[in-house]
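#struct-help
A.M.: can someone run this one for me? Single chain, 557 residues.
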Amino acid sequence: MKRNFLLLSAASVLFMTSCSKMGPLSADNFTVTPNPLESQGGKVAATVNGTFPEKYMKKKAVVTVTPELRYANGQVAKGQSATFQGEKVMGNDQTISYKVGGRYTMKTSFDYVPEMQKSDMYLTFDARKGKKVYNVPAVKVADGIVATSELYRRTLASENGVIAPDAFQRINEKKQEANIKFLINQANIRKSELKNNSVKEFVEMLKKINADKEGYNVENVEIQAYASPDGGVKFNDKLAGNRQNQSEKYVKNTLKKTKVNANIDAHYTAQDWDGFQKLVAASNLQDKEVILRVLSMYTDPQEREQQIRNMSAGFQELANGILPELRRSRLIINYETIGRSDDQIKEQYNADPTKLSADELLYAAALEDNADKKEAIYKKTAEIYPNDNRAFNNVAALEFAKGNNDAAKEYLAKAVNAKSDAAEANANKGLVALLEGNTAEAQNHIAKATGANDLNKALGALNIANGKYAQAEQSFNGVNSNTAALAQILNKNYAGAISTLNGVKNKTGVTDYLLAIANARQGNNDAASSYLKSALQKDPSLASYAANDLELINVSK
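D.P.: on it. Structure tokens below:
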């Protein structure tokens, strides 16, 4: 009897407590997506689906739910709160039934900081009924944080910045052109024409070619002779042919005098309607539009000429200003300049680098595999050519790869001082800003880097930072780097990431860690376990990233 009384009393107390108090809630009342939490685009976003049990929410109660991230070091970050009310509360918040309870969804987001990598997400409750405050304990609802997306700072730190390329080409195709004009209906070359500047430069070029056979190579000398379109087709065909012959005779004699051996490619155009149309279009002729319309309407040469002659005033302007320019021969030397070989550039650098051009010096640096030797050449280039932004930029890119951000900034400032809109320098300023977590600043710099060499690398990294993973992977197309592979992993292209990582030349702990992630995502646990072990041996600090990644936790067991 006494035992039954005690049981009844205990049950009564429990009943009265549950009716008079808003007790603790269980983690079973909540589902958080994703769990564990993940960083994306510098944010840690979560969706909480919760349930208030039946007979929990008092009819006059108000409950404010606040998500909190509690870091391992004791710091706390608060997310966006949501407030719920009982049935008899006059307010605009979601109403929860006392009898049946209710479901709700709330979204929250935290700005990612590295300190929150080891953290747990709790929900805290501010429960009140009038002036009465209920003590509802906080509930742990999720683990945090999978920060794979934040690895871009680690991948960038091990890679070169954007290198400004040299414009050195050992062999360059060149042309030297002379123009000889003829009097109307004549094909003889006047002595006065041989004294014009274009002909003098033509001859001088042939002399230079003869004097430096190692530095020049002649492809051929091309002759294009023309007759203006006025006059009959048959007459002009013979006239243009004679002009070609006279021009070819002059070229042969000049080649012989300058001792240059070259093939001659000679041809002629009987009626130069194309040249005529170009000159008319570029002229200020009063009847220009009418003449151009005639050319478009008629294709027969005789009909064209007759229609144009009918415009007496217009034709006189043509006869004085346009047609004489078309009675000509063009003499074109097609040749190549041959620069120093790789060995000659290296020898000259060792002997006296001041004798090399800026492009040759930058090319000399590109020939070196050793980063220290590259940097020494870039610094020497900057010393010899202080107004060339590229050398300063390239030193900055190498300093960036070594993690010397302050030195990189110093050289980038010099590069921008030499050229304010230097594309590669602005791209590198963007990469430094990304490395420091300043995404908005990075975006501003990279926007000024249009046309930069390897700009896609900077764009890809920026897209990762902004959580645009598909665009990031597209930007890195064809690039074998840790950052490119990270973009593929974040875009769930795990097979592509493995292929990219296998192509990375200088593999680091981060490379192995990314290989572990990609293999784990594909279920290749043995390979993932092996890569994870190697990654943590090379770089123990990566353990903080692996700690909250479920796939990696599983393969490491």
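A.M.: thanks! The CA atoms of residues 4 and 27 lie 34 Å apart.
D.P.: also worth noting: The radius of gyration is 40 Å.
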